[in-house]
């Protein structure tokens, strides 16, 4: 695979990277904007009365929010090093959560360290699977979470060569189908309302239990754009941005553009908006999506990982939390598609810290049954007899 040279990555491995610090502390509306964009209708994270009556006694962010404070959607340490004429997709992540929640007034830092990479043959030809760690902490020095992200890098030409033309057109939904989808979506929201701030007991969960399904969509350019804006970095002026060399990563000048370029932001900020220019525009414009192998507008990998965390932590309730999760992305959320999440309890245990854990296997599919994400997680719940 000498014509797909990934050796430049070696010089970055194990070395902390620069990060772009937030200019202001987290604000309440940063959190509200996030849960709205992630389709996470949990009142505890946006409604003042519910937040005040919660176990936290105030508004706090959901566990998924840490990634919203990063300047690269959590992918930055997994995409260093030059690979000539290449494209990149977010391939999945693994999370470890330590307990502290992010709240208004917090200032979040992220220590990022490229971890490793391997090259394999896939349908895209030689493909680099590259990993890096994000270590999120607050202003008190409390560790919030570690995220180990995986990027998938492949020859630029391979993306366009692999696009499925039969998927160019969005599915059409009848009014009856949309109404049925609305009812399925609200069933999960009703579960959140019913649980409220009550405990979900570890004792009451059994191996083989199925978590209530979560359904949302259809996705659209509007919903993806809403997600894009919920990542704090994607609003002008919110971070002291580090200089990124997108061409240095192997993107052509046309695709690289000036996405989040701190110098260009002071000259022509429109050119720095990744929703319209640069590698990220493929999410919203089919013309560019097809150049990297996607048939039409597609969702963000970081959002998909957040959907997993929200799905599991919503079920756990305010007294529980996701302590570890793995999400392997298998296919994107495309415009017009619906996302369906399910999970099954596969084990229960008590770890060496004395936490009562529920082990689950989770799955994300679209309306056609196409797998979007697979993985496992451990969720800590309170015990009646503790």
UniProtKB/TrEMBL annotation:
Coiled coil start-end: none
The protein's superkingdom reads Bacteria
Which residue range or ranges hold the FAS1-like dehydratase domain? Answer: 18-146
Protein name in the entry: MaoC family dehydratase N-terminal domain-containing protein
């Amino acid at each position: 695979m000498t014509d797909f040279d990934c050796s430049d990555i070696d010089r970055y491995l194990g070395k902390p990277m620069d990060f772009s610090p937030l200019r202001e502390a987290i604000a309440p509306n940063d959190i509200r904007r996030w849960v709205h964009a992630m389709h996470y209708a949990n009142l505890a994270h946006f409604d003042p009365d519910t937040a005040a009556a919660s176990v936290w006694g105030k508004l706090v962010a959901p566990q998924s929010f840490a990634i919203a404070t990063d300047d690269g959607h959590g992918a930055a340490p997994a995409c260093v090093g030059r690979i000539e004429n290449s494209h990149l997709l977010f391939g999945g992540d693994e999370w470890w959560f330590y307990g502290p929640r992010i709240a208004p007034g917090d200032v979040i830092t992220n220590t990022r360290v490229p971890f490793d990479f391997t090259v394999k043959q896939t349908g895209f030809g030689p493909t680099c699977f590259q990993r890096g760690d994000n270590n999120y902490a607050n202003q008190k020095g409390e560790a919030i979470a570690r995220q180990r992200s995986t990027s998938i890098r492949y020859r630029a030409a391979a993306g366009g060569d692999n696009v499925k033309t039969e998927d160019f057109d969005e599915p059409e939904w009848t009014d009856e189908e949309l109404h049925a989808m609305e009812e399925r979506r609200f069933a999960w929201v009703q579960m959140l309302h019913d649980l409220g701030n009550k405990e979900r007991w570890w004792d009451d969960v059994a191996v083989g239990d199925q978590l209530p399904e979560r359904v949302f969509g259809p996705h659209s350019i509007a919903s993806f754009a809403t997600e894009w804006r919920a990542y704090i970095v994607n609003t002008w002026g919110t971070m002291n941005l580090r200089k990124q060399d997108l061409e240095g990563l192997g993107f052509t000048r046309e695709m690289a553009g000036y996405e989040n370029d701190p110098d260009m932001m002071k000259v022509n900020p429109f050119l720095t908006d990744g929703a319209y220019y640069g590698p990220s525009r493929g999410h919203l414009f089919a013309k560019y999506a097809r150049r990297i192998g996607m048939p039409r507008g597609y969702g963000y990998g970081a959002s998909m990982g957040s959907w997993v965390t929200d799905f599991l932590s919503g079920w756990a309730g305010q007294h529980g939390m996701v302590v570890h999760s793995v999400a392997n992305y298998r296919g994107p959320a495309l415009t017009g598609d619906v996302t369906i999440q399910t999970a099954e309890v596969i084990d229960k245990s008590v770890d060496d810290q004395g936490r009562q854990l529920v082990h689950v296997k989770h799955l994300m599919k679209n309306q056609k049954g196409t797998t979007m994400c697979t993985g496992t997680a451990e969720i800590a719940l309170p015990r009646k007899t503790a």
